[in-house]
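B., you asked whether I could sanity-check this one before it goes into the benchmark set. Here's the sequence:
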Amino acid sequence: MSETNPAATAPVTADAAPHRYTAALAAEIEARWQDFWDAEGTYDAPNPSGDLAGDPELVARPKKFIMDMFPYPSGAGLHVGHPLGYIATDVYARFQRMTGHNVLHTLGFDAFGLPAEQYAVQTGTHPRVSTEANIKNMQVQLRRLGLGHDRRRSFATIDPAYYKWTQWIFLQIFNSWYDDQAGKARPIAELVEQFASGDRDVPGHTRAWSELSEAERADVLGEYRLAYASDAPVNWCPGLGTVLANEEVTAEGRSERGNFPVFKSKLRQWNMRITAYADRLLEDLDALDWPEAIKLQQRNWIGRSEGARVDFPIDGERITVFTTRPDTLFGATYMVLAPEHPLVEKFTADTWPEGTRPAWTGGHATPAEAVAAYRAQAASKSDVERQAEAKDKTGVFIGAHATNPVNGRQVPVFIADYVLMGYGTGAIMAVPAGDQRDFEFARAFDLPVHCIVEPTDGRGTDTATWEDAFASHDARIINSANDEVSLDGLDVAEAKTRITEWLERRGVGEGTVNFRLRDWLFSRQRYWGEPFPIVYDEDGIAYALPESMLPLELPEVEDYSPRTFDPDDADTRPETPLSRNGDWVHVTLDLGDGRGPRRYRRETNTMPNWAGSCWYEMRYLDPHNDRQLVAPEIERYWMGPREGLPHGGVDLYVGGAEHAVLHLLYARFWSKVLFDLGYVSSAEPFHKLFNQGMIQAYVYRDGRGIAVPAAEVEERDGVYYHQGEKVSRLLGKMGKSLKNAVTPDEICAEYGADTLRLYEMAMGPLDVSRPWDTRAVVGQFRLLQRLWRNIVDEDSGEVTVTDAEPDDETLRALHKAIDGVRQDLEAMRFNTAIAKVTELNNHLTKSGGGVPRAVAEPLVLLTAPLAPHVAEELWRRLGHTDSVVHRDFPVADPAYVVDETVTCVVQIKGKVRARLEVDPAISDEELEKAALADDKVVAALGGAGIRKVVVRAPKLVNIVPA
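And here's what the prediction gave me:
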């Protein structure tokens, strides 16, 4: 008996048949076959070369690389909702093996992250200790499900041998820049060579590259590197003591984890220049086999928009805006900067200009006081809150005016929270006549509204009478001319082109493309993450560690938690756990750059938990390689471009839709950088993406709104009670905190893993969420019992199949099932595949007598991908010595797939008057003749003439009497 899969101890009654398929027998069978698979390496997928090379015949087959999204090893273990995708990919992988493919299917663990660190803070247990214990528990649970993983390829992101290469990839990104002309990343050394040779001007300097100091050179290169440190507005969460990415902040401006307030603050952080790849990330979506909803979310997140950059002069300098509607420039009557815009301090006046309206000052004595107060107020709001359509418009005047470049008018400059630094330039020209938010702001602050398009709704051009803005993309332009250019009478498209040409001629603007996508904030003030392979010299210049010093491992620290603060104290700064280990932070190193040993300070932030999952598909390919990220031949074999996969990538990637933006976008970015640098042949990580639905469960809550144990709830006359108290019921997520979790261990103990697999696959289409119902599991258990009885005698344990030839009806049932199940498994319609297996099994049960071997063996093979343990056992009992895993999947005989006859319904005046058994290939003419000659039809017509006959061969004839 396997130590990791104890047999179920369900009681067996004295009168039960000794060889009946029971939970106890299922557990014994499942444990034995899992041990067999492990011992034989049944699921080991050979590489074409390297330490995992194997059978050349298997390598020569078509390959399939099938992946699940990385699981996080939670301390709570699995509930029955977690394995849904894992079982689905296992069924699909088994089917692909049986249809002649070399299948790579394995599973690792995304093990860095906040939960383990928080547990360490609470208990003092090292995150590695608790995480590895969680992984071991999860491995036991997953093994019990009979998942056919190549265990040689498994790893965890916390393994130093793995994160060595995460750090190495970071350094390749750090040492690269994006060449817009070449449209790809190139080594930073090539950019340095261009600066040094004079082939490229050094931006911001009149001196030659050789004349710049090391710090000046570092600053210049920092503007190009794909991984760079900068002082930037960030989401600072004092309650967690860390900075968060935009995606980790809720719409309410609070941390996704812990629900703490989040503030805008300026900190020096590492970033990934993902924006350099915005166009390619958009364009390459078209060739991916992904759900359209996911593609749309990525397109919206990247947010490409075409327009113009326009410069508004101010105090001898300029404020640059991006607008998608340069045709409305003549209607710009004021400007707004994001509160955190760096130009706010520069242009804020010392005193209020004469004529400043009281509403513009926020009640403050000076512009500086008004700006400071408003900035503090805006910092406490999320981007979503700031842009809410229904909220009152707020802002303050900074005491300065800019010049509208098309008409020379002075326009006041405000700061307002509805403008975000994260989009465009962080500054807007406000056109209240054509934008509702600008209109509301203008009304609130008594600002002019100039009509620049001819309204088509009858409101007229007197904006004083308007109740809202008139936003139109097809109206004619009016009141938009100066001495050099006129837009009057043009449509929007013509006006955009003309004004953009004028702006470019005058040198005050240009046509451009803008993206909503921002660079990826890559620093976290945590302990439990990958250390950055970066050190700083005494001048603060960043240097990459040489590859020989990787992996840079996490040091021991006395306190795992970052310093947290009062959650509402925005005026705080991070203090990281790593910074407390002085011996690790301050080091003397020889970086191999010819300078000898020098003193350095290590980076004390760590990488975000997304880092390890950005490239894990590549490590699955060549998991033990300590010399390369992945051997090129191996990467090309499993992930290289080929027909149908123009960008290469994983053949099938299954996971939740909640990762539509973050993980998928980041992984695509890393793949493209590595592709550009020549390390991989695949420009995309995942060719086909499938989002499985969610297994839901009912949540029961008492009068206080607190969840109560679902297992203890009783139903009486449609009302639910817990310990006598009425409770509410709502379908939602399944989880330990909601007290409605059902573990796979419970179901395996009661019915066996094969039953659990069948139930989860039979619940409905894989991409649809569905409610868990423990009471319904028994249906799949009974299917397996009937399957078992059709082959094994429950009293003697002997095989009961016969060598008799099956009759035609049984052959038709068999080959229809083979044809249908094959199509369903290929299309991942597992629920309908199970229905067809059930239908065939029921046919055999009703037929009585021994099942012909010619039917029993294909039936077992049809079942093998879905319920592999019982299939292996029955296959062995049928006299075979090989495993079903690599057996050929049955192929249907077309002669038996098509029905000999089909039933045709004959209707007269819409009522069924006859049913005919006809050839499926019958023509319309033949069917009409047969229907009109049928005795029942003749009698029903009673000699009446016929006005019309509608024929839909072979199933319908509709007769309309005269």
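One thing to flag: Residues 1-12 have pLDDT under 50 and may be disordered. Otherwise nothing jumped out at me.
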